[in-house]
Amino acid sequence: MDNRVYIFDTTLRDGEQVPGCQLNTIEKIEVARVLEQLGVDVIEAGFPISSPGDFKSVVEISKAVTWPTICALTRAVEKDIEVAAESLKFAKRGRIHTGIGTSPYHIVSKLNSNPEEILDRAIRAVKYAKRFVEDVEFYAEDAGRSDNVYLARVVEAVIKAGATVVNIPDTTGYCLPSDFGEKIKFLMENVPNIHKAIISTHCHNDLGMATANTVAGVMNGARQVEVTINGIGERAGNTSLEEVVMILRSHKELDLHTNINTKNIYKTSKLVSSLMNMPVQPNKAIVGRNAFAHSSGIHQDGVLKNRENYEIIDPVEVGINESSIVLTARSGRAALNHHLEMLGVKLEKEKLDEVYQEFLLMADKKKDIKEDDLLVLVGERGYHERRIKLDFLQVVTGKNLVPMATLRLDIAGEKFTATEFGNGPVDAAIKAVKSIIHRKVTLQEFLIQAINKGSDDVGKVHMQVDFDGNIFNGFGANTDIITASVEAFIDAINKIGNSEKASDVKK
Ligand code: KIV
Ligand code: ZN
Hints:
alpha/beta, three-stranded antiparallel beta sheet, Double Stranded RNA Binding Domain, binds 3-methyl-2-oxobutanoic acid, elongated, binds zinc ion, about 40% helix, about 20% strand, TIM Barrel
């Protein structure tokens, strides 16, 4: 059996059914393009008969993406199928996803019908869809609670009618992983023409078992999984794409693979979360804020000795580049030293001990210690080399005045003064620094933050500068934000200039 598992993404159909998560067509196109870059095989773009907006989205997504198959959902109703076919007319590869309920609940109390009539409607729907597209997927709604023998008859009949994919949804999220796995196994062993179609899983998360059920499905022969980014979807959601993909990637013994470019997982998760106004829970597997964060001293020490002591996935694999060692009051010296080293600050044991005590005081006050806080801590104590220092600064600014800055720099003991005008006081001051220093630096990022939010607060400034294609980060903190900005800029220059010579400086 083929060991490729196809990823069918239904973020834009089942995921979008969540109240408050509706996207407009432009936003859906943005998500579809990101899903294409992620490498999904199928994008379920909507349920075209349900609204003109859904119809339009399927049309526009079909035009906007190239590689994934575009799928449109229908009921086993001719009009639905016609509208879906129409919406797919620009798709390079189009699929109609039609189906009907097969559990006793659906047959009797939803559809007021009987098993034979349902079987007949299923066959007719697939045959009708085949008139418009070659690729037809059939779903047996509530297959999770359907009788396996009857389900096998339906699956055999729809494959005979031309279904290329047969979806076995656990619509209510009821199944246990062992039962769902058994169901797929039963179909694989008892449907004579099963090899002519791909069996798909579509699991909901009502009991928190969607991912486990999906994995049980593929372990028993399913080769397509229907999933959403961040597991969003009706009620408790659908199976999450990132979890299934990373399970298959981590468990090599399963010998199953997908086409997903895992390095794009995190950015896709972020985009979907922000466009759909659906925050990701911090402890969500793979993409949660804390998924790779180690905060206790013992774990941090273990991870620093060997990442695999406490991590089964390298965060870089899913596109997370930040450090997984978070700094809190429970962090040890090893974690602090690790962060300082990453910032280019190397301390002797004795100095590290001193900074560690300062760090603990800061961590008691602040829950979340960031790298710029550390730089303020060590910067103030003079532990990193600062060849260039701001010696004096005066700015003249106000309404209807052209801002002007005069400053004096101390460069390795020598003093240099400059005055410049700018479109604001920071601009004037940065120009004055640049006029003293021979460096072709370009400011890439400039961020000012208040630490405690009062008007008497200390402003923290982060500046990112580009020098010769390399990025340098500078930090400054002061109750005067112009001074903090100039210090941040100088801090970045100092990092470039550890190799700087006095001859590089204008006299
Ligand atoms: O959960 C479900 O059964 C569905 C079908 C329409 C595929 O979403
Ligand atoms: Zn569903």
